[in-house]
């Protein structure tokens, strides 16, 4: 069970092998700990007892805290969750042998192919803009093979940027949504940021579970605190989030003081969970490990 | 996997504790000393360990049954507390 805490004034405690949720103004709910898969905390004003944290860690249950913009602010997990050193060694070695760059290229290739597929799917949703979306899809799909021929990160990032501008141009024209701007304050961009934040957390979690170093990436430049590998590997899943957000039609009623309302955040998390993408992400990260170790070649995920 | 929990405990305090622990672990009471619940693989041993710390006299049994076997159960009368088939987990709980 995924426990999503969206209201403030909630306290989470532990009693006799169960997670006890108490709400301000009464109301208590108890959930057996073996049924809990994860605890999502999406707002401030929530307290969590240390006994519960200990019990959750013993059960390998993740506790994840998001801030108002959807940044995964913290994640609690037991110390032994990141023990596979051999994978980390392979990851660093792959930086020198070029297998790492190959992996990042394949992930971006996957993203561009998925963007084209997403545009075609959007064309089926909105028949009146079918022509526009289908044309953009062919243009984006035409860029995908060029990614694989790239010899350096600059070339890959350049092609990724051109694909993104065609993709977002067509999406905003067909659906009348604002153009993509990570700094934008409109509900559509805020919801996308939130969705990408959830995706980043999900990839991060799998990267750590598989024993990789989230900060040592191949395409995104190394910078202190930037989870480059996570950013590399999450690329191919972004179109899933785009479709999810477009389908939910974020409107002005989603906003509260410049950030998303708590209900909207919980709705995004719920929708994300209903997509059941996390097992797919786990499989892709396991494949990435196999690629870095030279055991097999990475197959990007198809939308 | 569905587990049946049955006990016969003379001590009132221990009996109440056993019932409280079983319910905290998601078991539902079917009869006074008969509970059913779902547990993931390997967790029944943990539950028995927790029970063993509080129940010093009497007998407790945890019996695994395949998921579909309760559908074939034969019953006489209505169960006094809850139906024989334990409820499914809720997938997402939003608070």
From TrEMBL, chain A:
UniProt cofactor(s): Mg(2+); Mn(2+)
Coiled-coil ranges per UniProt: none
Alphabetical GO biological process terms: defense response to virus; maintenance of CRISPR repeat elements
Keyword Nuclease included in the entry's annotation: yes
Residues annotated to bind Mn(2+): 160, 220, 235
Bilayer-spanning residue ranges: none
Enzyme class: hydrolase
E.C. number(s) listed in UniProt: 3.1.-.-
A Gene Ontology molecular function term of the record: hydrolase activity
One Pfam family hit: Cas_Cas1
Keyword Cytoplasm part of the UniProt annotation: no
Swiss-Prot/TrEMBL keywords: Antiviral defense, DNA-binding, Endonuclease, Hydrolase, Magnesium, Manganese, Metal-binding, Nuclease
Residues annotated as signal peptide: none
PANTHER family: CRISPR-ASSOCIATED ENDONUCLEASE CAS1 1
Homology family: Belongs to the CRISPR-associated endonuclease Cas1 family.
General function of this protein: CRISPR (clustered regularly interspaced short palindromic repeat), is an adaptive immune system that provides protection against mobile genetic elements (viruses, transposable elements and conjugative plasmids). CRISPR clusters contain spacers, sequences complementary to antecedent mobile elements, and target invading nucleic acids. CRISPR clusters are transcribed and processed into CRISPR RNA (crRNA). Acts as a dsDNA endonuclease. Involved in the integration of spacer DNA into the CRISPR cassette.
Assembly mode: Homodimer, forms a heterotetramer with a Cas2 homodimer.
Protein name as it appears in the record: CRISPR-associated endonuclease Cas1
Species whose genome carries this gene: Pyrobaculum ferrireducens
TrEMBL record, chain B:
Record GO terms (molecular function): hydrolase activity; metal ion binding; RNA endonuclease activity
Keyword Ribosomal protein found: no
Alphabetized InterPro entries for the sequence: CRISPR_associated_Cas2, Virulence_VapD/CRISPR_Cas2
Binding-site list for Mg(2+): 8
Keyword hit for Nuclease: yes
PANTHER family the UniProt entry points to: CRISPR-ASSOCIATED ENDORIBONUCLEASE CAS2, CRISPR-ASSOCIATED ENDORIBONUCLEASE CAS2 3
Name recorded for this polypeptide: CRISPR-associated endoribonuclease Cas2
Origin species: Pyrobaculum ferrireducens
Lineage per the UniProt record: Archaea, Thermoproteota, Thermoprotei, Thermoproteales, Thermoproteaceae
């Amino acid at each position: 069970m995924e426990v999503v805490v969206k209201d403030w004034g909630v306290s989470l405690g532990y009693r006799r092998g169960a997670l006890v949720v108490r709400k301000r103004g009464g109301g208590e709910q108890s959930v057996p700990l073996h049924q809990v898969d994860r605890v999502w905390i999406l707002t401030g004003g929530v307290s969590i007892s240390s006994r519960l944290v200990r019990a959750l860690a013993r059960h390998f249950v993740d506790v994840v805290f998001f801030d108002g913009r959807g940044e995964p602010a913290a994640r609690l997990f037991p110390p032994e969750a990141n023990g596979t050193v051999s994978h980390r060694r392979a990851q660093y070695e792959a930086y020198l042998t070029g297998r790492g760059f190959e992996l990042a290229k394949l992930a971006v290739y996957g993203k561009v192919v998925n963007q084209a597929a997403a545009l075609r799917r959007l064309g089926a949703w909105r028949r009146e803009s079918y022509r526009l979306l289908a044309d953009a899809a062919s243009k984006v799909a035409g860029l995908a093979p060029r990614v694989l021929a790239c010899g350096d990160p600059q070339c890959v990032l350049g092609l990724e940027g051109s694909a993104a501008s065609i993709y977002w141009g067509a999406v905003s024209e067909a659906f009348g949504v604002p153009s993509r701007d990570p700094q934008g304050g409109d509900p559509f961009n805020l919801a996308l940021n939130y969705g990408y934040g959830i995706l980043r957390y999900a990839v991060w979690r799998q990267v750590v579970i598989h024993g990789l170093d989230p900060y040592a990436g191949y395409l995104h430049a190394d910078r202190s605190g930037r989870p480059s590998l996570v950013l590399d590997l999450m690329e191919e899943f972004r179109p899933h989030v785009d479709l999810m957000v477009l389908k939910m039609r974020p409107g002005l009623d989603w906003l509260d003081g410049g950030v998303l309302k708590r209900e909207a955040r919980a709705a995004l998390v719920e929708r994300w969970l209903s997509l059941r993408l996390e097992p797919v992400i786990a499989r892709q990260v396991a494949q990435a490990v196999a690629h870095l170790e030279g055991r097999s070649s990475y197959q990007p995920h198809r939308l | 996997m569905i587990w049946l929990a049955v006990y016969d405990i003379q001590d009132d305090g221990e009996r109440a504790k056993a019932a409280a622990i079983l319910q905290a672990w998601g078991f539902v009471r079917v009869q006074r000393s008969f509970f059913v619940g779902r547990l993931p693989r390997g967790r029944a041993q943990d539950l028995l360990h927790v029970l063993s710390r509080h129940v010093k006299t009497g007998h407790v049994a945890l019996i695994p049954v395949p998921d579909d076997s309760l559908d074939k159960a034969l019953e006489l009368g209505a169960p006094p507390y809850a139906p024989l088939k334990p409820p499914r987990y809720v997938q997402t709980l939003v608070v």
